[in-house]
Design brief:
alpha/beta; Rossmann fold; 3 domains; 8-stranded mixed sheet; two-stranded antiparallel sheet
Length: about 475
């Protein structure tokens, strides 16, 4: 077709496709009459057919954006890029390499890239933990020869249709700003696979948003050129790296999730399998909030409060996670999913969790100054736990909404305000033993109002709805 090359990217709408092809036809044939005029009409007719085909696709099904443009190049699932080669990014580099995928890792430090390419090991993350766990550096597996590293972000984004994101939430906005001009020039669609766990405040509404919402908000003007798939727990990076059995959650638009599950997560189900969840927001919110609970649980484990308290902490935290998840746009059943109760269980019960270790180290190293203690704890942990930053963002949201949430209020006070170990102990006891709520169920009237008005009907910290 004449002018088809100008459609290497998806048109924003049908009229843009008509205008583009019509203009291209005039440009080629110079608006001449007779035979050239007939050719011009033919090209314009093809443009009209294209617009009709586009509208049919848009109107009949909510399809993968890659399918909306019949002239776009099919996605290449033989290769994948990883942006953020921390512990989790490195772990998935091991996994994708074992599956014979071509993997390119982006890291800003050229010296680290050279070491990865030379030694097939990450010199900064995960390798030392694998060394301790396996009993020697000689037993640590090497990355596949098909795994390479580069500090060229433009090459990484342009050459790969699937991009795995594993940066921390506070670094995501800056990364998206760097990627955006590359994405605008790119001639094929992009699928972002996000394993990021955290919450941040939207710049305009100040509402708490998840990683996938932040990506969609930032790239809204080019929304037809990308899609987002969310990966949720339960999983630990060491298990992914070593090929231990893991079943994770894949959430997002169904068709693109099917592609990701088949091409990247389904080659060896003895190692890694997945379950589909339509609720990406709920999965992300649960994944972020359980890190706060893990921080509290880590500190509680050092208090010698017995073996029964963790059960109360787990169950009452579940109530708060479920309520806040619903308030932020997740489904009511989000916490009952693998990415909810399953992820929270392993995060609270295993020292493999960075956030659990953070809480434990915080209590052990506590100096009376929360910022000083925070810095000391980070020196002992490989990677940055998301819990402390999520605590700050959630606390601001709770204060603004006047929402009663004793466990999350407790977390904020422990890691940002308290000045002694005795005060930390008292905060945990107040949150678990002195809850204003005296019953475990929701009455029929409250249940109805809660489902009808989830953004309005919840227990307040102060005021009319503060009483049990």
């Amino acid at each position: 077709m004449a002018g088809a090359g100008s459609l290497s990217r998806p048109m924003k709408n049908a009229s843009e496709g008509v205008t583009c092809l019509a203009f291209r036809a005039v440009q080629i044939h110079g608006g001449k009459k007779s035979r050239c005029g007939a050719r011009w009409l033919r090209d314009f007719g093809e443009a009209v057919l294209y617009s009709t085909f586009y509208d049919l696709l848009r109107g009949h099904a909510k399809l993968n954006p890659m399918l909306l443009n019949p002239f776009s190049v099919p996605a290449d699932a033989s290769r994948i890029a990883i942006i953020g080669p921390g512990r989790l990014g490195t772990a998935f580099a091991y996994k994708f390499g074992r599956d014979n995928k071509r993997v390119i890792i982006y890291y800003h430090d050229v010296d680290v890239c050279k070491e990865i390419n030379r030694d097939h090991l990450n010199p900064r993350h995960l390798t030392k933990d694998l060394d301790r766990r396996l009993g020697g550096m000689d037993k640590v597996p090497r990355l596949s020869p098909k795994v390479t590293a580069t500090n060229n972000l433009e090459q990484v984004v342009e050459d790969n249709d699937f991009i795995f994101l594993s940066v921390t939430m506070d670094r995501l906005p800056e990364l998206l700003n760097h990627i955006r001009p590359i994405l605008e020039r790119k001639t094929t669609n992009t699928c972002f696979i996000s394993a990021i766990k955290g919450l941040t405040a939207d710049d305009i509404t100040r509402q708490l948003i998840t990683p996938s919402q932040l990506i969609r908000n930032n790239y809204f003007p080019i929304k037809d050129r990308f899609d987002v798939v969310t990966l949720g727990g339960p999983f630990f990076d060491t298990d992914i790296a070593l090929g231990n059995p893991v079943c994770l959650t894949v959430a997002g638009e169904k068709k693109i999730c099917q592609i990701v599950r088949k091409e990247f997560l389904g080659s060896n189900r003895r190692e890694l399998t997945s379950l589909y969840n339509f609720d990406s927001v709920g999965a992300e919110v649960c994944g972020a909030l359980k890190n706060i609970v893990a921080n509290v649980k880590g500190a509680a484990d050092r208090l010698e409060l017995g073996d029964s308290l963790p059960g109360t902490l787990f169950s009452r935290s579940g109530v708060e996670v479920r309520s806040l998840s619903r308030l932020l746009g997740g489904s009511f059943q989000a916490f009952q999913s693998q990415a909810g109760v399953g992820d929270m269980y392993v995060t609270l019960s295993s020292d493999a969790s960075k956030n659990h270790r953070y809480g434990r180290y915080f209590y052990e190293l506590f100096t009376g100054n929360s910022l000083e203690t925070h810095r000391k704890v980070l020196e002992r942990i490989d990677g940055k736990p998301e819990g402390p930053n999520t605590i700050l963002n959630v606390h601001k949201f709770l204060e603004k909404r006047n929402m009663y949430s004793p466990i999350f209020h407790c977390a904020y006070k422990i890691f940002n305000e308290e000045r002694s170990r005795e005060e930390i102990r008292e905060q945990i006891l107040q949150a678990t033993q002195f809850d204003r709520r005296t019953r475990e169920y929701i009455g029929p009237t409250s249940r109805l109002l809660y489902r009808l008005f989830p953004n309005l009907w919840y227990r307040r910290h102060r005021g009319l709805l503060a009483n049990p």
